[in-house]
TrEMBL record:
Keyword Magnesium set for record: no
Entries under SUPFAM superfamilies matching the protein: Cyclin-like
One Gene Ontology molecular-function label: protein kinase binding
Protein name in UniProt: Cyclin
GO biological-process terms attached to the record: cell division
Length: 225
């Protein structure tokens, strides 16, 4: 009993995501656009669940495997900034990661991307995209530290994502371009003219920001993640 309580307390400490955990000097435009689109999607779906219109169906569907106990305190923009800051994955990984999430929704239409699962979905999707696109990338254990989940959980979520996608993780340049245009269109509708970097280039990991103990403590509360 005491051991279980201690483990729960450790998880609570490790998973407590603070909204101000990552404050880069300037947010890349692709992160701004992606954050805006994902936040709108989550707000809409949270509203459906709160109204009881979709709760009975979505809770039984496959995306529930990504659910945390509660929604993390860290915002979607700050979470994406954190992933970008510490993993140094190429910008295209975030667009392709978003494409994976979109594929999941289309393959499992009764599943909803909501506050309980969006952080884990984004972390897992971007990590898988980095393995496909980047010549050099960090392993699952590092992504787990950055994202505030356990390595075992992230390993499991990666497998869940791959099987739910039927291992369809290739994205053609034409499809990539269509998602870039979609993100730009959404921002334009909101009155902001921004463009997504189109180059499917790879980043190195040698000059990445160092993840300190304090940084890890800042983000984690994966009882919520």
């Amino acid at each position: 009993m005491m051991a279980a309580a201690a483990a729960a307390a450790t998880d609570e400490r490790r998973l407590q995501l603070i909204d101000g955990a990552c404050e880069p000097s300037s947010t890349p435009s692709f992160l701004t656009m992606l954050s805006y689109v994902v936040e709108r999607l989550v707000a809409r779906n949270d509203g459906l669940v709160d109204d009881g219109l979709e709760e009975a169906s979505w809770n039984r569907k496959n995306l529930s495997v990504f659910n945390g106990v509660r929604a993390p305190a860290i915002s979607i923009p700050k979470y994406l900034e954190r992933i970008y800051k510490y993993t140094n994955c190429s910008p295209s990984c975030f667009v392709v990661g978003y494409a994976y999430v979109d594929r999941l929704v289309h393959r499992h239409p009764q599943s909803l991307v909501v506050s309980l699962n969006v952080h884990r979905l984004l972390l897992t999707s971007v990590m898988v995209a980095s393995k496909i696109l980047d010549d050099e990338h960090y392993n699952n254990a590092f992504y787990a530290r950055v994202g505030g989940v356990s390595n075992a959980d992230l390993n499991r979520l990666e497998l869940e994502l791959l099987f739910m996608l039927d291992f369809d993780v290739t994205v053609s340049y034409k499809v990539f371009e269509s998602y870039c245009l979609h993100l730009e269109k959404e921002m334009k509708c909101n009155g902001a003219l921004q463009t997504v970097e189109r180059a499917l280039f790879t980043n190195g990991i040698h000059n990445v920001n160092v993840l300190s103990i304090e940084d890890q403590e800042d983000i984690v509360d994966s009882s919520s993640l």
